[in-house]
Task: structure prediction
Amino acid sequence: MLSLHVSHASVTAVDTPLLAIFFNAAESGAISLPATLQSLDESLHGAIARTLARRDFRGQRDETFTLVGTERGVERVMLVGLGKAPAARAAYRRAGSVAARAAAKLGAGAMHVLANEASPEQIEGVVAGIALGAWTYTDLRTPAPETERRAPLESATIIVSDSDEARDAFALGDALAAGQAVARRLGMMPSNVCTPDTFVETANGIAARQGNVAVTVMGRDDMEREGMGAFLCIAQATPQEPRLVVMEYRGAGDDDAPVVLVGKGLCFDTGGISMKPAPDMEWMKYDMSGAGGVMGAMEAISRLKPKVNVIGVIGSTTNMVSGTAVKPGDVVTASNGKTIEVINTDAEGRMVLADLLVFVKRFKPAVVLDAATLTGAIVFALGHNAVGLFGPDRDVVEEVRAAGERCGEPGWQLPVWDEYREQIKSDVADLRNTGGRPAGSITAALFLQEFVDGYPWVHLDVAGTAYSQSDLGWLPKGPTGTPVGTFVEFVRGRAR
Result:
C-alpha cells in the first residue's frame, strides 16, 4: 500500500533510494541542465549534465534514464521524460506513473519526486500518477520466494515549494489517488470476490473512514416495491441479492440541488441467454467499472469536502443464465411505467440504468452524470482513447468534456438526434432495449434518455477506457481508474 507524503526540503538534503526528476524534450539539440539542479549534479560529479549533453536522455514521453548516485543521500537519480507537448496535468500524471512503475521494477521501496517548480495542476497530476503507477493488486497471489522479491514501492515523497497552493494541490492529488485505488481494486477483483454486496461493504467503509457520507442500501424486495422491472429482470437469473446503493455527501445547504453520479455495477456479464462468445469473456468482470467509478469518486469527494452536495447511486447485479433468466422477446415494465421489449439480453446495463435514472429524480438533482461500460460499439467509434459523451444539453456535455480534459480522461460528444430513435421503437411495447448494430452507442444513450425526466443529464460510455486489455506502458493492463477523475473534476468545478 503506497503512502504519499509532501516535503519542502532542499534536493541536496534528501536521503532517498531514488530521486525522480522530470524534463521536457528539447525542441532541438540537448536538454540544458537547470540551474536549480547544479548543486545536485555537483554531488554526482556532473553525471546529469554529461547525460544530457551526450543526449543519452532526450526527454521523450515515457523515456527514463537511471543514474547511480551516492552511497548516502540520493542513491539513484531517474530522469523522466514529459515529451514535447505542453506539460499539463495529464503529462505529469503520465510521467509520474512511468516513474513509479520504473521504481517498482528497481525494488527501490521508496522514492522522492522533484516538483518544487511545478504548477499546482502539475503537482496534482504527478501525485495521482505516482499512485497509478505504484498500484498493484496482490490480494489473491502467493508471494514469490524471498530471494526473488523486489521491494514494492511503498512510499513516495513529492518535493514542492513551501506554499499553500502547492500543499493544496498535493492534497487534491492524494484524494484522487485514493479514489482511483478504490475503483481499480473493485475492478481487479474476480466476480466471485466482487459481488453486489462488495459495493455495500465498500460504501460503508468509505462512510466509516470519512464520517461525512450517509449510506442507504436497497435489495430485491425494496426494488420490487419501487416497480423496478427493468433492473430486476436482469437480476432474476442469479441467486445473489441485487443491490442499489446510495451514498450521500452533503457539503452545501439542504436546499442546494445535488450533483448525482450514477454507475452501472454488473459484477459479471455473461450476456444472459444472448450469451457472449467464450474468448475474452473473463474481461466481463470489468462490467462494474461505472459503479466502481462512482465509489472511487465518492471516496475522493468525501476527502476533499467540496461545498456542494453530491449523491452517488449504483445498481449492482450479475447477468447470468438460468431457468429463470429473462428471454429475448420478453416485455418488462420499468419504474416509470414504460414497457420494454427485451431484444437482446446482453443489452443489460441500460436496463439497470433505466430504473436508476428514474430513481434519482427524487433527489431533485442539479445534474445527473451516469457512467457505464455500456457498449462495445463505443470502442469502434472512439477506440480506447476517449470516453463517449451523450446528452441533449450541449453546455452540460461540454462541462463534462472540459472536466475530463483537465484531469487526463478525454471525452468526445456523439449525437443524440431524434432520427436514431426510430431504431428503438417496438412493435409490442413502448420501446426495445437495442436498436441493432448501427450507431449502437447512440441508440443505447437514446434508450437511457427515455428515463430521464426533469433534470440535466450526461451519459458517459467508458467501455473503451475504464480498463485496458494490454499494457499501455504508463499503465499496466487492467483497470485505469476512469471515470473517477472526470467525476471529481466536474464536482470541483461545480463547487467553485
